[in-house]
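Record 1 of the preview.
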Amino acid sequence: MEAVTPATEQPKQPEPGTFAGAEPTPVAPAVPRLIATDLDGTLLRDDKSVSERTVAALAAAEAAGIDVFFVTGRPARWMHVVSDHLHGHGLAICANGAAVVDLHQGIRFVLVHPLHAEDALSVVRALRAAAPGTTFAVERTGGIHHEPAYPPLSFDTPTTIGPADKLLSEDADQAELPILKLLAHHPDLAPDDFLALARASAGQHATFTRSSPTALLEISALGVSKASTLERCCAERGITRDQVMAFGDMPNDVEMLNWAGMPYAMANAHPEVLAATSRHAPGNNEDGVARVIESVLGR
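->
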């Protein structure tokens, strides 16, 4: 028989700053000047949609004078899913900090931190030796180029297919365009093991991270991360790190969460991300980012 709550007994209210479906956050959220949010696994639901609740929360934040920055590993050409939801400045940080793009001007590149071809080649050679079977793709501002055995995404048509050495040569197709990322895939290694191996064997040449559930590494120029580019964008606006609220779910978000004064890991986040902050938001399918923003604006 189902228990009945006596009429005089009031349901227990959650502590300030806590959210159902997430670990308790010990303090109520402060009001930030800027919100930086990852997309996949964070702002977007698993079907890659932006919920009506999230759209409303983002618009309310902007209306309250809070800048919203999408900070993602995605290339600029994949930003159509949120391009209608950036107000005011219209800027997004893409490719794990390698580019800042203006989504209000046809995805115009405003800032690029390129990976030099010689460094990318050094990474290719080191990973081929350390992890035989690794295949590569080269992400330039003009599109993606990959090796024949690299597993392509069904919706992403490569500009060129060929060996990595050729894709990175001086006479390669689009060689005049900056390299945003080198991508490395291994068919057998566990994702976190592959990342650790790559950092140990080639970390002197580039920055390594990952955001895919598969053994797919995202490789940027040394010192380039979501955090480094976000810090620059904030400095241009006179915003300090303690005024930044950030959301993320995968290892490529850890530096950003460590830098921001108000970091939130999603309930569905990678263990490393959950360990990076005591502030945990509900999962991406539960509109976790929107629920935290609503809590902030309700203060």
